[in-house]
Amino acid sequence: MAVKYHIQESHQLVDLALSSSRARKLQDSATQLRLAIHFLLERMMNQDLEDRFNELCVWDSLTPTPKHLQDWSSDFHNALDELNENEQSLAFIETIPRMFDYKLVASSEVEKCQSEVILFIEEFIEVMEEAQEEESGKEILSTSDVSKMFGVTSQTVLTWCKSGRMPGAYQTPGGTWKIPRKALSKIERLLSASSELDAYIPDQETVNEAVSRRRGDWRK
């Protein structure tokens, strides 16, 4: 997925929030935590999610005391490291509701704020997955790429393209076939159906045994 996350900035902001918390500047610490999380989510948020994020009651209810923030920030840093290695990791998103587990939210607001955060995260993940699918669908493959993926020859892939089995496949002015990744779903369904059909077709040995039995019955 072509998303540039502000990982380093988020690392720094969480460390700054911890320093502010230790200096008893809880308001500054809460603001810095909010910015750290926003930096990670902003590239994937549409306007509706952006508004929802800003209106979450959790931001006004954060009480990031040093002990609790230290525990949560360790999880957060680990999740950022994982995201740095795998851009599709959701570990950093899962750390957000754990703010409640680490008691970073005022106890009187936990129930209300937690339900808001969970609903927001569910919608965010849905938008994120849709964007991933769209980005994947835009990827253009060569006949060689597809032949390796399905274990067939390039000539077979050319046949699929020419017969219309690869929706959206097109030829360049030079005659080379290009195939959108989303076009592979039709071939995957066809191959899956063929595989299921093969399971019902007896092998040659079974056929020979059946013929032999039939001949034996006839001779009797």
Topology at a glance:
Layout: H1 7-22, H2 26-41, H3 47-55, H4 58-61, H5 66-85, H6 91-94, H7 98-101, H8 110-138, E1 140-142, H9 143-150, H10 154-162, E2 170-171, E3 177-180, H11 184-198, H12 204-219
Antiparallel strand pairs: 1-3, 2-3
**Helix proportion:** 55-70%
Quick check: average pLDDT?
A: 83
In what order do the strands lie side by side in the largest sheet?
A: 1-3-2
The oligomeric state is single chain
How much of the sequence lies in strands comes to under 5%
What form results from the Cα inertia axes? Answer: elongated
Radius of gyration: 28 Å
Q: Report how far the terminal alpha carbons are from each other.
A: 70 Å
Number of helices: 12
Whole-number tally of structural domains: 2
* Major sheet attributes: 3 strands, antiparallel
Question: Can I get a quick summary?
Answer:
With 220 residues, the chain is mainly α.
Describe the structure.
The protein has twelve helices and three strands, in the order ααααααααβααββαα. It has 220 residues and is mostly helical. The protein folds into two domains: 7-137, no CATH class; 139-219, Multidrug-efflux Transporter Regulator, Chain: A, Domain 2 (Orthogonal Bundle), CATH 1.10.1660. Strands 1-3-2 form a three-stranded antiparallel sheet. It is elongated. Mean pLDDT is 83; it is low at 195-201.
